[in-house]
Inverse folding.
């Protein structure tokens, strides 16, 4: 370190004199080049003289957990592309691979992909499902809370197909169909960009369908307080009323502790989302927390209910699941501890923790409107409703592959 400081003066003088000889001061462009060269020279000398190697190693060690936190979500993207490759391989070599094993190459590919996701859920998150008996044998509409990454839907669909040979259709945002390499996977797993008519047709054909009313908006701008961000979205209620099917509410404990979005960029991401309709909020996490999916009792079809009333009823059912099974606010360390020892909630809240008006409509409790709607609205992230006025169902819901 002492030797570097002693020899720095002559070295600087020699390099600077050499630099000055190479420039033509009559040429204006050379002034710019000279400025850049001098700045680069002094920055380099600064690092040469003042940056300690041990400090650099310490800084790298210190930042490693932060880097890993943002890299772990990429594992999910890698798994999605592996699933897509599996579908491509089965499609290309279906006559060789599937012959004698499965009559339908898509069925064989689904089994391989679902086995991959079920293994990941079991090993990394200790994934479990409770209330599976609440899913009826016939068609039904599954409504769930959307995490930053909806991995709970990946795991649920995988387990349903592996152990019950039941394939559930899902609704996805249109941007997912534009991602290179995903088309075969989305088609094979029956992921659709649904409108009200398409979704109702799927249910009338005897299939089950999953929808998240909050969609990518709830994924990006939700937090560990687990508030519903449905606003005035009632498309799923119209689907259920038109198809005359029951609705099964769903919530996965600790889904926000597994993956989270960066909160301090929320304002910028909100403006970008309103302009582009593309989710750009950075996601971090990938923590191996305990994930448990809770399926509530089915809400039967009732033709006397309006879509708005049905929306409030389903929102209340999901908020009840959150109140019963989720600590609010969520805690990553406690969620990690639950992999070893499951700690029940110590107390129940007298009223929904998520606020009575997060879905944008006043809840009816004993036929009286909620008096704190205005307060909840001011505390939540509110999008300009004019940007959502011409958006169909598939653009305000996001169901994963």
């Amino acid at each position: 370190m002492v030797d570097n400081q002693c020899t720095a003066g002559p070295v600087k003088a020699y390099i600077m004199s050499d630099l000055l000889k190479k420039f033509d001061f009559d040429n204006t462009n050379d002034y710019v080049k000279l400025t850049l060269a001098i700045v680069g020279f002094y920055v380099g000398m600064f690092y040469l003289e003042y940056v300690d190697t041990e400090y650099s190693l310490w800084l790298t060690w210190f930042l490693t957990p932060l880097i890993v936190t943002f890299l772990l979500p990429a594992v999910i993207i890698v798994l999605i592309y592996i699933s897509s490759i599996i579908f491509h391989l089965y499609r290309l070599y279906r006559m060789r691979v599937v012959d004698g094993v499965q009559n339908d190459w898509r069925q064989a590919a689904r089994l391989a992909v679902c086995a991959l996701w079920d293994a990941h859920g079991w090993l990394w998150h200790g994934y479990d499902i409770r209330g599976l008996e609440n899913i009826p044998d016939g068609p039904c509409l599954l409504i769930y809370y959307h995490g930053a990454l909806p991995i709970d839907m990946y795991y649920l669909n995988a387990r349903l197909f592996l152990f019950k040979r039941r394939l559930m259709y899902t609704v996805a945002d249109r941007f997912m169909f534009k991602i290179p390499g995903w088309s075969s996977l989305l088609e094979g797993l029956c992921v659709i960009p649904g409108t009200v008519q398409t979704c109702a047709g799927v249910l009338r054909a005897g299939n089950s369908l999953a929808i998240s009313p909050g969609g990518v908006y709830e994924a990006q701008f939700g937090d560990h307080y687990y508030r519903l961000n449905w606003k005035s979205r009632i498309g799923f209620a119209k689907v259920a009323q038109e198809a005359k099917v029951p609705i099964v509410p769903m919530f996965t404990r600790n889904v926000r502790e597994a993956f989270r979005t960066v909160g301090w960029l929320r304002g910028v991401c909100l403006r970008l989302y309103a302009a582009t309709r593309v989710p750009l909020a950075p996601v971090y996490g990938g923590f191996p927390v305990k994930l448990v999916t809770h399926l509530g009792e089915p809400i039967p079809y009732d033709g006397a209910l309006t879509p708005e009333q049905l929306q409030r009823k389903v929102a209340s059912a999901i908020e009840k699941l959150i109140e019963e099974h989720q600590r609010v606010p969520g805690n990553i360390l406690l969620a990690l501890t639950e992999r070893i020892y499951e700690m029940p909630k110590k107390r129940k809240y007298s009223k929904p923790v998520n606020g009575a008006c997060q879905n944008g409509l006043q809840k009816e409790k004993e036929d009286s409107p909620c008096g704190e709607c205005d307060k909840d609205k001011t505390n939540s992230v509110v999008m300009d409703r004019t940007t959502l006025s011409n958006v169909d169902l598939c653009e305000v819901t996001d169901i994963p592959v």
User: Anything to note?
Assistant: The radius of gyration is 27 Å.
